[in-house]
Design goal:
Blueprint lengths: L3 H9 L3 E9 L10 E2 L4 E3 L13 E2 L13 E9 L7 E16 L6 E2 L16 E6 L8 E8 L6 E2 L3 E2 L32 E9 L6 E15 L6 E4 H5 L11 E6 L9 E8 L1
Antiparallel strand pairs: 1-3, 1-16, 2-15, 4-6, 5-14, 5-16, 6-13, 6-15, 7-12, 8-13, 9-10, 9-11, 9-12
Length: about 270
């Protein structure tokens, strides 16, 4: 869909899907630390990263934000009714694969089971990874992940990454503003364009808690700017493109909050077209 006429025709002919979302995190979060709204209660229902330890597991697309037969993201509207929720950055992602129950107290190399492979973006190009806390952790320790990149080269490494001390469930353990920490996604080895699979993870010191390694394809980023003031993002008007959404996508948000958003409703509407 690369012409304005194609977009106009889709809207005029009713080839548009409108769906609402409402997420209300029950866990505390921290300003400047990314967190996973897929784990929050609301609509769609929370994702708990259930599954066998360190085994690649595919997300159930019927449990993410509904997109119907749509192929392209058209608009996002998002808002919050609490000052703690504004400003906040929201990133819509296609959640692809996860490795649950990583024992962050174990200092041995923990190898993964990759019997299941990426269901979409199968080369891994553009696919990024994060580690989200399933259970509170200590923080302040280093870890590294070995992965296979989008060219099929194994043995690639994130290098040493420092855990934050936020310790909250649903927070990204590597997100923060301190030395050797990062933003939403773990770093890739120089020259790599994405992640096809994860090979292993190792903590250099006991960190406590449990985590999940998650592979996602980022789709679109928007910002809630003000309290009680909906932010509307038109993909074509704002960025001159309509992000493609693959069939079977599990859509949900990750969030960079302004403060703790425990109990804070984050609501909105997503419009997709085909």
């Amino acid at each position: 869909m690369n012409r304005v006429k194609d977009i106009v025709d889709s809207v005029n002919e009713g080839r548009i899907n409108t769906v609402s979302f409402r997420k209300v995190p029950s866990q505390a979060s921290t300003a400047g630390t990314w967190c996973d709204l897929s784990m929050a209660s609301g609509n769609p229902s929370p994702n708990f990263y259930s599954g066998n330890e360190l085994t690649a597991t595919v997300f159930d697309s019927t449990k993410g934000i509904y997109k119907g037969n749509s192929e392209y993201l058209f608009e996002i509207m998002a808002q919050t009714s609490s000052a703690n929720g504004a400003p906040s950055t929201l990133m819509l992602c296609d959640y692809l694969l996860y490795y649950p129950q990583v024992d962050m107290d174990n200092v041995d190399v923990q190898s993964t089971d990759n019997t299941t492979t990426l269901p979409r973006y199968t080369s891994g190009e553009g696919v990024r990874m994060f580690v989200v806390a399933q259970y509170p952790f200590i923080g302040g320790v280093d870890f590294r992940i070995t992965y296979t990149n989008s060219d099929g080269v194994s043995g690639r490494s994130t290098g040493l990454v420092r855990c934050n001390n936020v310790a909250n469930i649903a927070s990204f353990i590597h997100s923060g503003s301190f030395a050797n920490s990062f933003g939403a996604f773990l770093p890739l080895q120089s020259g790599d364009k994405g992640v096809r699979s994860v090979e292993d993870i190792q903590f250099l010191s006991p960190n406590g808690g449990l985590g999940a390694i998650v592979l996602v394809k980022p789709i679109y980023t928007t910002i809630i700017r003000e309290l009680q003031s909906p932010t509307e993002s038109s993909c074509f008007k704002d960025s001159a493109l309509l992000p493609k959404i693959e069939q079977g996508a599990y859509l949900n948000f990750i969030c960079l909050p302004n403060a703790s958003i425990s109990g804070v409703p984050i609501t909105g509407i997503i419009k997709t077209i085909w």
